[in-house]
């Protein structure tokens, strides 16, 4: 591959085609089904599917033989599943490369700074702000653009399949049915490329080597059937919030954050320990500087290696929502009858999510304080993923691509988020190699306010993927 030509072409495709398409995509509030149960009637998902599929079909002028299809299945009740965009590009040889992304989005979230809006694209220099551009709307366009770069230089490549799902942010619950239905057409990929992950900086190519799983659900404590005057009942009726505090203390240490449920821990592999140490040396304080700290705040540790392991190979609890508590302006002197919290527990790779959910439920519901009614209703239970050993050809291809397009060595580390598709593919295709990467770097803030896509990284990543696909064919 002529790297200079490839990067220049990627730059042109991004500026003239991908960025304008992403601006249209950002304007579509196609929230994932978990956040928009009425998605089929709302029509936003269909609008996003049409935008991407139409653009993809137009790429047939640059990618001969490209076939684009919107696949639609129904569930057992006869209800529509979220659609999948399936694309196929013929290649040489018998191998297959599978490229993956998703088009559904997280909800709006509060806190967007003045001048920004989740559903209105704003470009400021190298950054394109708006919900879903970086997570993960760009993946459809970048995947085809990478193949287009190979076609422009008449470089051979294996057959490619691009799969874009529409419920990743809801745990990919529809995806297994599509994988089963499309299995004969997908074949047996020897390389999987996923563009839904992150990068610890924008200066080199990052490969994700593991992903945490997720167990989430609603914890509710009921102590009364209705609210009562706090002056009358406090000191006699235990606060539902205080009972919640006791229950949460069973789960994680309030002083350190260490999860106390041993069933959620694993032995960290030595190779991942060494990777964490190497990344900590490269990043230094960038490990935590990238977050929007309030003045005077600090991370849970000053040891970079421990911080990386905390977010990749150790469980961690977050409280992401609450019910039963009125807004401050409406909070009268009432002892509330119940409090409910949404728990989000990240679990390490190799932990069974079903067993983890069961262990969490038993820990929270057993022996309720004061005989209160305590319920934990699990919602999501997604497994983590640990990449297979890196093949020498992929290690060299990734290193070459990083040097060619970023000018620095590639780095490998685990990520703290969850991509359910990777665990599915790891089981179905145990011999495949994985290039899991993405543009979610410092400040990009996927799921939160002010999400942005770093455009130069997208351009370099597109060229890097093309380079790796070329190396895959020549291996």
From TrEMBL:
Pfam short name (any one): M20_dimer
Q: Which residues form the Peptidase M20 dimerisation domain?
A: 210-368
SUPFAM superfamilies referenced in this protein's UniProt entry, alphabetically = Zn-dependent exopeptidases
Q: Which Gene3D superfamilies does the record associate with it?
A: 3.30.70.360, Zn peptidases
InterPro entries linked: Cyt/Met_Dipeptidase, Peptidase_M20, Peptidase_M20_dimer
Q: Which PANTHER family match?
A: BETA-ALA-HIS DIPEPTIDASE (PTHR43270), CARNOSINE DIPEPTIDASE 2, ISOFORM A (PTHR43270:SF4)
- Entry protein name: M20 family metallopeptidase
């Amino acid at each position: 591959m002529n790297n200079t030509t490839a990067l220049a072409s990627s730059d042109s495709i991004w500026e003239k085609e991908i960025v304008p398409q992403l601006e249209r995509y950002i304007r579509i509030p196609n929230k994932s089904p978990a956040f928009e149960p009425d998605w089929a009637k709302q029509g936003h998902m269909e609008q996003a599917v049409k935008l991407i599929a139409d653009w993809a079909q137009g790429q047939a002028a640059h990618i001969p033989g490209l076939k684009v299809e919107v696949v639609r299945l129904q569930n057992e009740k006869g209800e529509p599943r979220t659609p999948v965009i399936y694309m196929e590009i013929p290649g040489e040889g018998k191998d297959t490369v599978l490229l993956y992304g998703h088009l559904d989005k997280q909800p709006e979230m509060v806190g967007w700074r003045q001048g920004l809006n989740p559903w209105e694209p704003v470009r400021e220099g190298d950054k394109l702000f708006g919900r879903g551009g970086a997570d993960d709307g760009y993946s459809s366009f970048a995947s085809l653009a990478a193949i287009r770069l190979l076609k422009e230089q008449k470089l051979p490549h294996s057959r490619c399949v691009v799969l874009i799902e529409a419920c990743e942010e809801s745990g990919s619950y529809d995806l297994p049915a599509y994988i089963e239905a499309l299995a004969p057409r997908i074949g047996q990929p020897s390389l999987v490329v996923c563009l839904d992950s992150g990068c610890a900086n924008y200066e080199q190519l990052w490969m994700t080597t593991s992903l945490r799983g997720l167990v989430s659900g609603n914890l509710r404590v009921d102590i009364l059937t209705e609210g009562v005057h706090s002056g009358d009942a406090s000191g006699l009726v235990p606060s539902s919030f205080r009972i919640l505090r006791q229950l949460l203390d069973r789960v994680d240490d309030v002083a350190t954050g260490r999860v106390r449920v041993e069933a959620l821990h694993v032995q960290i592999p030595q190779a991942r320990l060494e990777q964490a140490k190497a990344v900590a040396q490269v990043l230094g304080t960038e490990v935590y500087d990238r977050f929007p700290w309030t003045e005077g705040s600090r991370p849970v540790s000053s040891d970079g290696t421990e911080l990386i392991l905390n977010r990749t190979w150790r469980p961690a609890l977050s409280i992401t929502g609450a019910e039963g508590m009125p807004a401050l302006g409406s909070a009268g002197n009432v002892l509330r009858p119940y409090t409910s919290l949404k728990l989000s527990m990240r679990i390490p790779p190799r932990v069974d999510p079903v067993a983890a959910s069961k262990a969490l439920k038993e820990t929270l519901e057993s022996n309720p304080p004061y005989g209160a009614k305590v319920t934990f209703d699990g919602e999501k239970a997604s497994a983590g993923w640990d990449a297979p050993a890196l093949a020498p050809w992929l290690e060299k291809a990734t290193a070459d691509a990083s040097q060619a397009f970023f000018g620095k060595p590639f780095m490998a580390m685990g990520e703290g988020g969850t991509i359910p598709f990777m665990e599915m593919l790891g089981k179905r295709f145990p011999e495949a190699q994985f290039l899991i990467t993405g543009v979610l770097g410092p400040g990009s803030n996927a799921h939160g306010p002010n999400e942005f896509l770093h455009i130069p990284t997208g351009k370099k990543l597109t060229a890097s993927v093309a380079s790796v696909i070329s190396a895959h064919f020549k291996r």
